[in-house]
Known about the structure:
The protein is 13% helix and 30% strand. The protein contains eleven helices and 33 strands. Strands 11, 12, 13, 14, 15, 16, 17 and 18 form an eight-stranded antiparallel sheet that branches. Strands 22, 23, 24, 25, 26, 27, 29 and 30 form an eight-stranded mixed sheet that branches. The longest helix is centred in the first third of the chain and has 17 residues, at 2-18. The chain is globular, with a radius of gyration of 25 Å. 50% of the residues are buried.
Amino acid sequence: MILLLLFLLNxxxxxxxxxxxxxxxxxxxxxxxxxxxxxxxxxxxxxxxxLGIKGEDTEWVTVDxxxxxxxxxxxxxxxxxxxxNASSCPPNNxxxxxxxxxxxxxxxxxxxxxxxxxxxxxxxxxxxxxxxNQRADFSFALFSGGLSNPKLVAISxxxxxxxxxxxxxxxxxxxxxxxxxxxxxxxxYDINEAVPxxxxxxxxxxxSKSPAGTLTFGRSxxxxxxxxxxxxxxxxxxxxxxxxxxxxNSVYTYRLGHLxxxxxxxxxxxxxxxxxxxxxxxxLQRVIIFGDMGKAERDGxxxxxxxxxxxxxxxxxLIKDLDNIDIVFHIGDITYANGxxxxxxxxxxxVEPIASKVPxxxxxxxxxxxxxxxxxxxxxxxxxxxxxxxxxxxxYVPAENRAKFWYATDYGMFRFCIADTEHDWREGSEQxxxxxxxxxxxxxxxxxxxxxxxxxxxxxxxxxxYALEGSFEEPMGRESLQKLWQKYKVDIGFYGxxxxxxxxxxxxxxxxxxxxxxxxSGTVNGTIHVVVGGGGSxxxxxxxxxxSWSLYKDYDYGFVKMTAFNHSSLLFEYKKSSxxxxxxxxxxxxxxxxxxxxxxxxxxxxxxAD
Length: 610
């Protein structure tokens, strides 16, 4: 009986851990239960009515509210498109079942009394929302009855951006070769309305134009609810252009464009990026890595459950230090949209200052991919029915097949092997062969810094759930891979999924293989494993078990910065998102011969022959 209770406790905790201990704020709204109860003495007025008249892609809107029968559970939802009714509901084949008033969740919401504590006495309040251009108009609706039994009391006037279809939110990513940069953006223009392109060139020199491909998807591409039901929103059109034959270490300017049939161009604002160094180039190279950031609202919307409290701090610290960053890796659990598609626009707007200037490389996590009977390794519902479609379409990665989210990318003296933990990685799998090929094909004389990264912890973690499993890892995590890390002498393995920070000693088969803690020199002998899942989502508890291999733990939000000064010197820094200060660090100093040196289970064969 005791064993059964322990098993059920473990199973319950595992489920909570996998689903992130949290609930997508929009999922709290039972929008399909909406009852129309329009009140003659209730009014909402939104201003200004026209946004983006100077080309802005985000604006603050004031909503003035007056209601004669206020209550503490009144809330205001933002809807886009502005007209929301039963037309958004999937076809109803059961004549006995009443069609809901609406089947579209709002894109954000606020409780009225959060802004004005006296609202329940006066019935008056003024709320401020920050809106981004999302290819459609907006309206604001006042509901009583709380989130679980919403009663529609009043609807505001409609407002919109001057050009809802404008090209927005560029996301840079490394191409399949070192001298290629990809630019992905979102617009409201289909290919039969306008031709997508990028105008670009070396800073200060003449510009050329490159075409872009266009992708989109429909509701039928979603695997389940809410992505297929109340969370569905038209994603617009996602364009990607491939800027090729770049000169290394050079500043390029670019802008997104659409050529209309009448010969007129619609342009975005201008941006710039610095092209990648040649593989092996000896120069200063700075890399940011974190996981599980998600998105948050600067106007306080949707924060009823404080779902992703560290997200904006992480974003703002990266923006603040952007001149000292060359490339960013966000290793899974990107938006936590969980099937509410509007949140992907919100996220791309949030990271635009970063992703428009440096490559923003992503990995696939459970909240992007997992859905039962969809081919994901884990038969869970964490993606909210997205089953990978949003991540694979909204962001470019240099994978051979973006539905299989593993890829290799080079940045100067670094080789990055990015795994996809939502597909099988075990020995004999297709992904295992990729991982070994990625690790085996790097020339360590030219690219000495070999990095492995994945979303779930395939290495080591003192997370409470992993401790209950008894393995301090994702089940079946390192059993197949540790011999590859050791054989090919991987320097650091990075993971998210667990929402905290932890660094291990250089380790192999559960044993520390180096007694140093902060200044490694010569042959390191094993791989250092780092959990860096504190990008923004609610934090994960550590186990009370003190593991011998854990050198530093932090129950806080943060990210890692690696700086390669040359082929022999690397600086690792963990920074808190709250202040950007360094709280953990180590250095590696070594020569090429130290990389070649024989280590346990990592020796090249030799012969006694002359």
